[in-house]
Amino acid sequence: MAAGLSAAQLTERHGATLDKALGAIRTRAYWSPHPEHPKVYGDGSGIGPAEGKAAFDALLGTRFELDQPGTDDWPGGEVSPYGIELGIQYPHPDIDVLLPAMRAAMPAWREAGPKTRALACVEILARINARSHEFAHAVMHTSGQAFTMAFQAGGPHAQDRGLEAVAYAYAEQIRVPDSAEWVKPQGKRDPLQLRTTFTAVPRGVALLIGCNTFPTWNGFPGLFASLATGNPVLVKPHPRAVLPLALTVRIAREVLAEAGFDPNLVCLAAERPGEGIAKTLAVRPEIRIIDYTGSSAFGEWLETTARQAQVFTEKAGVNTVVVDSTDDYRGMLSNLAFALSLYSGQMCTTPQNLLIPRDGIATDAGHKSYDEVVADLAAAVQGLLGDDARANALLGALVNPGVRERLENAPSLGSVALASRQVTHPEFPDAVVRTPAIVTLDGAKPDAEAAFLSECFGPVSFAVAVDSTDQAIALLRRTVREKGAMTIGAYTTSPQVERAVEEVCLEESAQLSLNLTGGVYVNQTAAFADFHGTGGNPAANSTLCDGAFVANRFRTVEVRRPA
Amino acid sequence: MAAGLSAAQLTERHGATLDKALGAIRTRAYWSPHPEHPKVYGDGSGIGPAEGKAAFDALLGTRFELDQPGTDDWPGGEVSPYGIELGIQYPHPDIDVLLPAMRAAMPAWREAGPKTRALACVEILARINARSHEFAHAVMHTSGQAFTMAFQAGGPHAQDRGLEAVAYAYAEQIRVPDSAEWVKPQGKRDPLQLRTTFTAVPRGVALLIGCNTFPTWNGFPGLFASLATGNPVLVKPHPRAVLPLALTVRIAREVLAEAGFDPNLVCLAAERPGEGIAKTLAVRPEIRIIDYTGSSAFGEWLETTARQAQVFTEKAGVNTVVVDSTDDYRGMLSNLAFALSLYSGQMCTTPQNLLIPRDGIATDAGHKSYDEVVADLAAAVQGLLGDDARANALLGALVNPGVRERLENAPSLGSVALASRQVTHPEFPDAVVRTPAIVTLDGAKPDAEAAFLSECFGPVSFAVAVDSTDQAIALLRRTVREKGAMTIGAYTTSPQVERAVEEVCLEESAQLSLNLTGGVYVNQTAAFADFHGTGGNPAANSTLCDGAFVANRFRTVEVRRPA
């Protein structure tokens, strides 16, 4: 390792953090080394708000140099959902030059071993953390998230997910010792003896295909899981959300170079408009791991076609909430209103279908008819978002025209119980900010089923009238089995109903949140504590983050010698 | 749990064994709870030789009742490679009846939890162990292995592999606690609090597709990994090697029923001649896990086609030994001679290509020309197998006509350095027993390449003349990358060559044995200590046994409630 950053320095800086992360994935108690409050940054720890904004502004309209081999073009063209043009140009790869360069970086990174790799990854994350204010602007102006969410979900929470992946990757690699003495008794004869070494070896180049809505949060786990297990990572961001991952690649390259490794272990692949470079990259023989977040169609294409690679996908699902009964009607309504509103429902975890018995539900505020529940929920959303400043802070902007089209089409699907409202952003007049719509559908009608059994990504939810809670539970099972779900919620005061919903989630492999009425929402998961998806239903083939997410990113090679 | 076999009894009987197995996979030191000497059995521990033979004989010509639902036919027709007809009929499933019955068994097995499942699996293995003498005959008369090998590899060693899988499965499931309290500070406000439960849930019905040569050794890992992670297992044996797995299914069903579980958690699917039921089963939506050992063609078909399942395959490879130099020429020759002879080269781990410089090699017995090395190896094999009794004890019988055809075709591929010899079996005159052939090929000739770069499964090995050790290493790399390998061997006294071979194995993901000259052979791996294959080259997509072999057989479902 070169002069810059020694293994000893890395251990001193981050050894304790890695140990705590290893502990957290075992206990799954709350833990994070990355403060989530923007105010914490800038006063000795990382850069502050003004510096972050200035750093972001300085990037606009520039060429994003990364000094990668084989750059043959400089595409760009990101336009913020808030209306400004970023005008940043990124390197487009000649992959016949870049991929061999990345492969050439592998042996030294493999030889560094699991611990040095893990600590170098933590250093990358620490430097990203210090620049959380800069990342916040980058995430905000590519995803459309409001600033605070862009800061938290795109910054500390994404860093947590990255660190969690590093911890899992490290733990997995050290389950086998570096070496072993094997002595097999042979009765009266001498025992058979071998000395065996075990080495974690990488699979090859990993491809990260980023998404538009959560470029860092959904991107970091795969990136760091692959890198920590010895694989170079080629980062192919969504063409509308390049900047957050380009910054990530730059920081990773800096750290790797300082630690004496080839910076080509982490490279960026920007694409020309309409190029679809992911399809070309995904089937290259050098690509042995793919992480993807996005549409089911492309995710399934990857799973089926990129047979030379381990493919980890998060795709579309139909998240469902069963509303049976509650002892905190107001808490339920406000919790659901928030869950539907946050980032205009553009989270893969936002509830879409609310299954409500048509005869109504029992609550602490008396029996509520189906119509009352829907009207009260609509009122709760309206109340939450009545103030434009608060609405802007919660909603953010619609990430792309496709979401707006779906929202505008929503009234054609059923009866509108809550119409979407346009909100003006004081600072960015061109931002497309919309409150969520609630559409009522009759669960017994086939044409309604076609609507609510498809993912309608964005600020549209369906209040589905069902004959009974039993029918709701049957529909829940069918939805998860056929369409998948990242999250399931349920409200009930009945132990029998609770048990039945739980059983469906256990049998169909879905993550369940019960009776959330306070400040935790069904669409939020915390690294170290919560699994994001299960990997066991059609919405995703893996979870963030467990042993299966990391165990097949490397292999263990054994060398036996007579002792 | 019913009266028969309580969780407490299982813990008392097998808790210590499970703990030791968990320790062994961490240290990878030698360990086995299953004695490998036939003599140990019968005197208080398990059934003895006479009883085992009698039990096997009593099965011949009978209908193998398993009391499974949906049995619609009783195919059979196994003929021992030693010439006798087994005449046993096995249940053929109506899969539309059997698969739902297996699914119905899942919830209670899931609820039993990882520990009870693991201990029940250990009980199954213990009962199989007690009947090792019976299994030995069953394995011998389906695989053609000689009795001692059938006893050891088909008995205790297979049981070790099964126990190893149970240990990995159990360890993986308990990495996450049963529950956690999540308390997130909120500054001056009350903390956010959740109580979360975590449950390991099965994927669905697992399909084990057995092989002809090692029905138990290659079958137990997948069977027990799936069962221990909560999945029912449908066992589809090779039609020529049904009995060892039918016995396994029967014992598993007995234990499960005694422990109060539905015996349909483990079922048998025998097939009619030429039916190819594996193709039908593999794409059923209920089948979510597949374990397969066999041809590359069908393995790749499964990997590509059975997209609804996690597919674990061990396929064909071209195992290679680099012969550069040695300080124990005699030891090298006798070690290689044994490796080529054991079970007539019908192990997936038997060396096929011996890469020998055409200018010869340096040895402790002086320089040896290519021709001398080949002649001396041929003489070593002849010496080892000169005595018919010893030959029969080592070789066993050819498992099927395909192997004999390949052997008979071998002389057409190159020059015969050692001709195969027919050996008469004193007890079974119809047994097809053959000594291995060694064929010399010139590695520089394209037509030779076509021969040695294909798997020639059976007692045929190629002494490939190469220009230099460097060329041998380049050919080794190409072989592993393009064709895959379960095992690599190398003989060298040069640290540079050793390092170069090691580097190829690390980069191409192959298991390496260096300078084996004593009583350990390249084709043998020991459970708990050695990985069988790497899962990182074309010969197999998984290894026996690591975290990746078990981690995706279950998912973790989380249920969150406000605390």
From TrEMBL, chains A, B:
The keyword Oxidoreductase applies. Residues 94-476 form the Aldehyde dehydrogenase domain. The keyword RNA-binding does not apply. Keywords: NAD, Oxidoreductase. It comes from the Bacteria. Gene3D superfamilies: Aldehyde Dehydrogenase, Chain A, domain 1 (3.40.605.10), Aldehyde Dehydrogenase, Chain A, domain 2 (3.40.309.10). PANTHER family: DELTA-1-PYRROLINE-5-CARBOXYLATE DEHYDROGENASE 1, ISOFORM A-RELATED, DELTA-1-PYRROLINE-5-CARBOXYLATE DEHYDROGENASE 2, ISOFORM A-RELATED. This is Phenylacetic acid degradation protein PaaN. The gene is paaN.
